[in-house]
Amino acid sequence: SSSQSVATVSYEKMEQDKRYQGSQAVPEALLGDATDSPFSIRGQFRDGRAAYLDNSATTPLDPRVLDAMAPYMIGSFGNPHSRTHSFGWEAERVVEEAREQVASLIGASSKEIIFTSGATESNNISIKGAAHFYGKRGKHVITTQIEHKCVLDSCRFIEQEGYDVTYLPVEQ
């Protein structure tokens, strides 16, 4: 078996590369058929239904989830961290119940379930937390050049803390 050497690029160099800019910063000609193919980034309708291809950003809400959440968004709207009144107590009870349900569903302990505001916060906590937890074993993190901006930003942050980060290129 032959070992392949992987060319790596610094974050700064990658940040200046036009291939890694958002589509609004890239001339339409460079996007090829990404804007006019049947499943374009602009969205298309098939059989009267939208072909939504950005589930990594947000996902349509299942009506059953909406039904389960509605009472807490309309009537029982307390902050689960406000423990000085019944609205907070009820909200905390419901959040902890949801935590138990998620844990049971995936075979985890409820102490292992952390609710965040979304993917960006989750990625920041995961990357920085893992780097700091394992930092005594070595300060090297490997990621790809095509990760979400929040992942790349977290990697850049830990680089400033003295970690070595390898940004692997992706060819296909």
TrEMBL record:
InterPro entries, per database record: Aminotrans_V_dom, PyrdxlP-dep_Trfase, PyrdxlP-dep_Trfase_major, PyrdxlP-dep_Trfase_small
Q: Which GO terms describe its molecular function?
A: cysteine desulfurase activity
Listed under GO biological process in this entry are:
iron-sulfur cluster assembly
Give cofactor(s), names only. Answer: pyridoxal 5'-phosphate
Q: Where is this region: Disordered?
A: 1-31
Q: Which cellular component terms (GO) are annotated to the entry?
A: cytosol; mitochondrion
Pfam families referenced in this protein's UniProt entry, alphabetically: Aminotran_5
Ranges for the Aminotransferase class V domain?
Answer: 52-171
Q: Which PANTHER family match?
A: CYSTEINE DESULFURASE, CYSTEINE DESULFURYLASE FAMILY MEMBER
**Family of this protein:** Belongs to the class-V pyridoxal-phosphate-dependent aminotransferase family. NifS/IscS subfamily.
Which protein are we looking at? Aminotransferase class V domain-containing protein
Query: What organism does the record attribute this protein to?
Result: Cyclophora tenuis (Marine diatom)
